[in-house]
Design goal:
single chain; alpha/beta; Rossmann fold; Arc Repressor Mutant, subunit A; 2 domains; 4-stranded parallel β-sheet; 11 helices; elongated; DNA binding
């Protein structure tokens, strides 16, 4: 699998600075090379449990801007949830190995995560839905409507037109829903994107 990933990444123009077989070597390679992205399996030696995931989370704690794409043989909602909870939803990915078979999509996912995006396998999202309490339950029906339109990419003005309300009312709804979703103002975080991600996970 590792050799195959190296071949795919190289084919799509990436330089693989190191390919390693266990979590300690992964940590050492990142410290040595400062890569643009880390691609790791959840399960790695030495324990063959979640060593790769643990290494990814630890690396993100040291460098929150380090893009990390985790792949897994099986749907492990606890692992996916822990990875997402340990990040601010930027530059992170979690894919099942079945998705790697489509090399074009996999290469696109690598690029998206490296560029700061988030890529979560649809099957993983579906399983996470059953595990997590829906945070959208805190929102009023109108706030959910506004968030749904945000998720479709609409601007405040477009949302106001769609709902036949003023732009000021839309702004108020957005501020309320951001507060209810525990997304306080932060200069380094795009709260609108995080709100949409919360909507998609729910």
């Amino acid at each position: 699998m590792r050799d195959g990933l190296v071949a795919v990444l190289t084919r799509f123009g990436h330089q693989v600075v190191e390919a390693v077989g266990d979590a300690p070597a992964l940590t050492a390679a990142v410290e040595a090379h400062k890569p643009d992205i880390v691609v790791t399996d959840v399960r790695m030696p030495p324990t063959q449990t979640d060593d790769g995931l643990r290494a990814a989370i630890a690396l993100r704690e040291r460098d929150p801007d380090l893009p990390v794409l985790v792949i897994s043989q099986y749907i492990e909602t606890a692992s996916a949830g822990e990875l997402l909870d340990s990040t601010d939803a930027r530059a992170v990915g979690y894919l099942l190995k079945d998705r790697v078979i489509d090399v074009t999509d996999f290469a696109a996912a690598v690029r998206q995560v490296a560029d700061g995006g988030t890529v979560i396998d649809p099957e993983v999202i579906r399983h996470l839905l059953g595990r997590r309490r829906d945070p959208l339950q805190r929102l009023t029906p109108r706030e959910r409507e506004v968030l749904a339109l945000m998720a479709q990419g609409h601007s405040n003005a477009a949302i106001a037109q769609a709902l036949t309300v003023s732009a000021a009312a839309v702004g108020k709804h957005i501020n309320n829903l951001l507060a209810k979703l525990d997304l306080p103002p932060d200069a380094d975080v795009h709260r609108r994107v995080l709100a949409v991600l919360t909507y998609l996970r729910s």
